[in-house]
Design brief:
- By secondary structure, this protein is of the alpha/beta class.
- Helix content is 42%, strand content 15%.
- Strands 1-11-8-7-5-6 form a six-stranded parallel sheet, with helices on both faces.
- A hairpin with a 5-residue loop joins strand 9 and strand 10.
- Helix 1 (8-27) runs parallel beside helix 10 (262-281), helix 2 (43-59) packs across helix 10 and helix 6 crosses helix 7.
């Protein structure tokens, strides 16, 4: 039976450390602040927003909400982004994506100041992830995978890692973060030839393809660590990951549940990025 790697204890440990950092910032007269920009009312955005706000409140981070109707114009959204860029009291921005199809998402992301990009949506932040220079912030979900590994004592150095999924939100950044930690990384996707064989060779398997059950029993091998990043809804309306959980639980060494795994850590990573951005804005060290 696999060890269950839950996200809650990881988030709790991070939150405890971050509360102290937020207190030190406030003692220096700095009120760390996150701007949340949401267009429309997608249920998944609302759910993540509630979680982010709750985490920020626990830690001592202020939140400013910028909510636009689903039919807002490109200029209205860009005006909000410019306001955030120009407001010295705002240290980080969370922009919910995907945006409605009539909006130019790439242009909106490019308009955000890189110093306020705490979720890795600008080209500068992504370049930092790929170069490993540590200047920008990686996407929070990709970084949450590393936080889970560190908390549960899995050292990536020298390990064979397979990441299934090539998006710029999770798959590619997660692969680069693992490479920066000296893992030997194979990046796969839904069109990889003999995906199952590639997955079975992994000591660490990260599933981020966005397809329910794509990682089945034929992809798994004894002793693996499996991080399931997928968020899908099955025919019965239940939240499920990319991994066949029952199959994994019977074979692998450790697996993250969905829900209750990576997602529980993501908001804590977001909060850490905001605090770090606030400290950088004042040229102080946490």
């Amino acid at each position: 039976m696999a060890e269950l790697w839950k996200g809650a204890p990881v988030a709790a440990a991070l939150t405890e450390r971050l509360c102290g950092q937020a207190e030190r910032l406030r003692a220096r007269g700095i009120s760390p602040t996150l701007a949340i920009v949401r267009v429309g009312e997608r249920s998944e955005d609302l759910s993540y927003e509630r979680g982010a706000c709750k985490r920020c409140e626990m830690i001592g981070i202020s939140v400013k909400h910028f909510i636009l109707p689903v039919n807002c114009t490109q200029e209205e959204l860009l005006t909000v982004i410019r306001r955030i860029n120009e407001d010295g009291a705002i240290h980080g921005c969370l922009l919910f994506r995907p945006l409605p199809r009539h909006l130019d998402e790439a242009a909106v992301c490019a308009a955000l100041s890189p110093v306020k990009d705490v979720d890795g949506i600008t080209s500068g932040s992504l370049a930092s992830v790929f170069s490993g220079d540590g200047q920008g912030y990686p996407p929070c979900t990709a970084q949450a995978c590393l936080e889970l590994l560190d908390y549960y004592g899995f050292e990536p150095t020298g390990r064979r890692a397979v990441v299934v999924g090539r998006s710029l939100v999770i798959g590619r950044p997660a692969a680069m973060l693992l490479l920066n930690r000296n893992a030997t990384v194979t990046l796969c996707h839904t069109r990889t030839a003999d995906l199952a064989a590639e997955c079975r060779r992994a000591e660490l398997l990260i599933a981020a393809a966005g397809r329910a059950g794509i990682i089945g029993a034929n992809c798994l091998s004894p002793g693996q660590v499996v991080i399931d990043v997928g968020i899908n809804v099955d025919a019965a309306g239940h939240l499920v990951g990319d991994v066949d959980f029952a199959a994994a639980e019977a074979v692998v060494g450790a697996v993250t549940p969905v829900p209750g795994g990576v997602g529980a850590v993501t908001t804590s990573v977001l909060a850490r990025h905001v605090l770090d951005a606030a400290a950088k804005s004042a040229d102080i060290s946490l």
